[in-house]
Amino acid sequence: MHDVLREMALWIGSTSGKEEEKQCVTSGVKLSRIPDDINWSVLRRISLMSNRIEEISCCPKCPNLSTLFLQDNMLKVIPGEFFQFMRALVVLDLSRNFGLRELSEEICSLTSLQYLNLSRTGIHSLPVHLKGLRKLISLDLEYCFGLESIDGIGTSLPNLQVLKLFHSSVFIDARSIEELQLLEHLKILTGTVKDALMLESIQRVERLASCVQRLWIINMSAEVLTLNTVALGGLRELYIMYSEISEIKIEWKSKEKEDLLCDSSPCFKHLSHIVIVNLQGPKELTWLLFAPNLKHISVGRSRRLKEIINKKKGMSISNVHPDMTVPFRKLETLSLWRLSKLKRICSSCCSIPENFILCPPPALQSLRHFFVEDCPKLPKAATKSIRDTIKNNEDDE
C-alpha cells in the first residue's frame, strides 16, 4: 500500500487501545485558537480541521507526530517555529485556509513529509528551499488562484508522484512542461491549459500525458482541439470552459510513435466526468461517443449547440467502432442548461423507433438524475422520454 494511504488508513482505523491514546480529534467545534491542553509530545495524529483558528502562537515539541490536519480554518500566517520540532511529520493538510498567503521557509525542515495539501489557499509562491522535502510524494495546489509559478519543483522534489494544479493560476505552458518532465516518478497530474499548442505538446510526451487525470481547458481559442486517447489514457475528468473551438477532434494514434496504432478500443476508458460551459463553436458533441464510461455530463451556455449526438456522425463512428453504438450506457447524471439552440440529445431520446439505429433502448440505462433549464427548442417529448427512462431504471432496481 502507498505510504500516504497507509498513514490515512491508520488514522481512520486506529479507534481503540493505545493507538486511540495517541491521537487528538478536535474538529468542527469553532475553536479560535489551538487548545493549550494538547499533549503534543506523545501524540501521533492531530486533527483541528473545520474550526475558526486564525493564528498559531505555540512552538510545540512533537517528535512522534506523523499526521496534522489544519484544513478549513482561518489561518493567515503560520510562524516558522511552529514546524521546528516536527521531524516525523508525514501528512500535513493546510487546505481551505483561504487567507494563507505564504509559507515560511521552515516548512522545508519537515524532512519526513510525504503528503502536503495546500489546495484552496492564497499562497503566491512555494518556499525557495523545497529540496528539504525530498521525500514528498504528493503535493496538492488545486484552486490556488494566486500561485505564480512552480519553478524548481522538478529538481527539488525528485520523488513526487502526485502533483495537482487543477484550477490554479499556474497553466501548463512550455516552461512548466520542462519542469514536469523532470519528475521521473510522476503518476498523477491535474492541470489547467489555455493554449491548444501547449495541449498538443504535452500529448506528445506520453509519459507525462498519461499521468493527467483531471484537465481544465479555459479561455482557449482554436480552430481544432485534438484529444488523443492514447496519450490521455488516464483522463478521468474533463472541463472545457469559456473557449472558442470550432472542432474537437479525437485521435487514437500514438503521438510519440507515429506509425503505432492503439491495439485496444480507441476510447477514453477512464473518463467519467465532463463539464462544458460557454464553449462557442461546435454544433454537436458527437465526440462524446469516445467516452463510453461517462457517468456525469453537464453542458451549458453554448449558444451554437444544436444536438449532443449527431445521428450521421454517430453512425459513421459506430460503423468503424461497433462497441460505440450505444451512447451514454453508464451515464448517471445529465445536466443541460441555457442552450438556446439545442434540439436533440441523441436519437433514442426522441421516442422515434426508426432512430433506434443509433441509440437502441440500452442508451441511458443507468441514468438517475436529469436536469434541464432554458433549452426552449428541446422537444418536450425528448425530456419526457428521458424522465420515463429514469423511472424505468428505478423500477428495475
Keyword list:
397 residues; alpha/beta; Leucine-rich repeat, LRR (right-handed beta-alpha superhelix); 15-stranded parallel beta sheet; 8 helices; 15 strands
3D structure, described in words:
- The chain has 397 residues and is an alpha/beta fold.
- It has a domain at 1-123: Leucine-rich repeat, LRR (right-handed beta-alpha superhelix) (Alpha-Beta Horseshoe), CATH 3.80.10.
- Helices cover 17% and strands 20% of the residues.
- It contains eight helices and 15 strands.
- It has a 15-stranded parallel beta sheet that branches.
- The longest helix has 16 residues, at 380-395.
- The protein is elongated and about 70 Å long.
- Residues 348-360 have low confidence and may be disordered.
In short:
The protein is of the alpha/beta class and 397 residues long. It has 8 helices and 15 strands.
* Computed CA radius of gyration, to the nearest angstrom: 24 Å
**Got a strand count?**
15
Largest sheet features: 15 strands, parallel
CATH class of the domain at 1-123: Alpha Beta
- Strand-residue proportion: 15-25%
Poorly predicted runs: 348-360
CATH architecture of the domain at 1-123: Alpha-Beta Horseshoe
Mean pLDDT: 89
Shape: elongated
Structural class of the secondary elements?
alpha/beta
- Report the CATH superfamily of the domain at 1-123: Ribonuclease Inhibitor
Number of helices: 8
InterPro entries: Leu-rich_rpt, LRR_dom_sf
Pfam families: LRR_8
Structural topology:
Elements: H1 3-13, H2 17-21, E1 23-25, E2 45-47, E3 67-69, E4 91-93, E5 115-117, E6 138-140, H3 153-156, E7 162-164, H4 174-181, E8 188-193, H5 196-204, H6 206-209, E9 212-218, E10 221-228, E11 237-251, E12 273-280, E13 296-300, H7 311-320, E14 333-337, E15 369-373, H8 380-395
Parallel strand pairs: 1-2, 2-3, 3-4, 4-5, 5-6, 6-7, 7-8, 8-9, 9-11, 10-11, 11-12, 12-13, 13-14, 14-15
